[in-house]
Each structure stands twice: as structure tokens, then as C-alpha cells.
Amino acid sequence: MDNHNRAESQSWDPFAGVAPDREAALSQYRDRAPIYDLELRIFDPIRRRAINRLWLRRGSTVIDVACGTGLSFERLRKQVGSKGHVIGIDQSAEMLARARERVERNGWSNFTLIQSPIESAEISVAADAALFHFTHDVMRTRDAVCNVIRSLRPGARVVATGLKWAPPWAMPVNMAVFYAAMRSVSTFEGLARPWSLLEPLLADFSLEERQARSVYIASGRVDRVALDS
Ligand SMILES: C[S@@+](CC[C@H](N)C(=O)[O-])C[C@H]1O[C@@H](n2cnc3c(N)ncnc32)[C@H](O)[C@@H]1O
């Protein structure tokens, strides 16, 4: 048994085998797009922390995976500067329309926005970093995770963050996770260890748990050999 399978077998998951449902996700975010920015404000400190962990430099190219309305754009742009490049990808037309408005409103010329499922997105650069911010459905779709990793240069930084189940004894916390996840994900599969498909593809993997262990920040750098094996 390899490390990945061993870790999977350690956490029993009543939702095992329930894959993300694209139509459900599209409908979820069609309804949620107008109020999304307001709802996500509470996670702003996590977003800041996650973006800092990307260790971006001026001139870097970063992929904002399932970028939604572009809430990370301003910080990403600040870090890569006007010579850098931000690629935002999302499958939801309604969320991406807001991301596009944000880019136009700010007159940012170094953004590329792609409307596509991550698993089939054509990403034609070797990017320096990728951010998966509150993208549980993507994190639980192996083809999507691999498509992003393949589009990164070897050694590129990857940071993933989002909701997770707190320990079982933290019932009130898990009620809050349940409520938030109901509105954000199309499967609860893997919510105990959402990073489990990504972890085997990264070197120097590190994991931080915050908000009473109901939010994770996973990070590492691309290990090409792991992807090819
Ligand atoms: C909770 S929002 C996060 C948005 C953004 N990353 C943020 O931090 O605010 C989840 C986003 O994932 C997108 N999404 C879900 N599954 C996807 C997939 N397979 N491919 C592309 N986008 C997806 C949804 O459309 C939605 O915009």
C-alpha cells in the first residue's frame, strides 16, 4: 500500500465514491454569484495567508484555480506586479462574469480568464504557482488536480485551502462546516482530508489547520516525477 492509499484508508468516509456533480455545482454558483463576495469576507485572513504562502515574485505567472468572482485577484496582482501574469479559470459563467468585471474595472491588462472545467482547461503556459482557494470539487477531481499540476513548471509552488471536517468531538464546529459546505460543494467526499489527491504530487508538503481545525492550508512544490509515475 502506498502512502496515499494508506492515508485514505485511515479516514472512513461515508461519502466515498460520490464524485463532484458538475450540473449541481453550476446551479449552486449561478444562484450564489450575486452574494458570493459578501459571504466570503469572513475567510479573508485565510485568503491572505494562503496567497502569502505562494511566495510569488514580480513577473511570476500564477494560476487562480476555480477563481470564482476573482476575490484573490487584487492580492495576486500586487505580488506578481504589472509584468507578471494571472490566469483565472472557472466553469461558472456567472462567477467568471464578475471576475471579468473586476479586471476591467481595475484596468488590469495582465489577466487571462478562461471559462472551463479545470479538468479540461487548456493552459498553455508553464506557470510558477497555483492557488486552489476554497475549491473542494476541484480538489476531489483527480483529472482536474493533475491538469493544473501538469501546467506548472517543476518546483512551482502550490497552495490549497478550504473547509475540512474538524475532529468528531467538535460538533458545533462541524455543524458550521456542514452548513457552509452545503452551499459550496457538490460532494462531501474527502472532506476529512481534501488535500489527499494533491499531496502525493507535491514535494515539501506541509499542512496547517486553522479555525478550530475546520480550515486547512496545504502547500508544497511540484514534483514532476510523482506526476509521471
Ligand atoms: C467556493 S468558490 C471559490 C472561488 C474562489 N476560488 C475564491 O476563493 O473565492 C468555488 C468555485 O469553484 C468553481 N468550480 C467548481 N468545480 C469546478 C470545476 N470542476 N472546474 C472549474 N471551476 C469549478 C465554482 O464555479 C466556484 O466559482
Number of strands: 7
Overall geometry comes to globular
Biggest sheet features: 7 strands, mixed
**Spatial strand sequence of the major β-sheet:** 3-2-1-4-5-7-6
Order of SSEs: HHHHEHEHEEHHEHEEH
- Portion in helices: 25-40%
How is the CATH topology named?
A: Rossmann fold
Query: What is the gyration radius calculated from CA atoms?
Result: 17 Å
By CATH's scheme, which homologous superfamily applies? Vaccinia Virus protein VP39
Distance between the termini: 15 Å
Ligand catalogue: S-adenosylmethionine
Can you tell me the residue ranges where pLDDT is under 50 for at least 5 consecutive residues? 1-9
Quick one: CATH class? Alpha Beta
Domain tally: 1
Report the sheet-strand fraction: 15-25%
The CATH architecture classification is: 3-Layer(aba) Sandwich
Strand-pairing-aware structural class:
alpha/beta
By DSSP (H or I, 4+ residues per run), the number of helices equals: 10
What is the mean predicted local confidence, pLDDT?
93
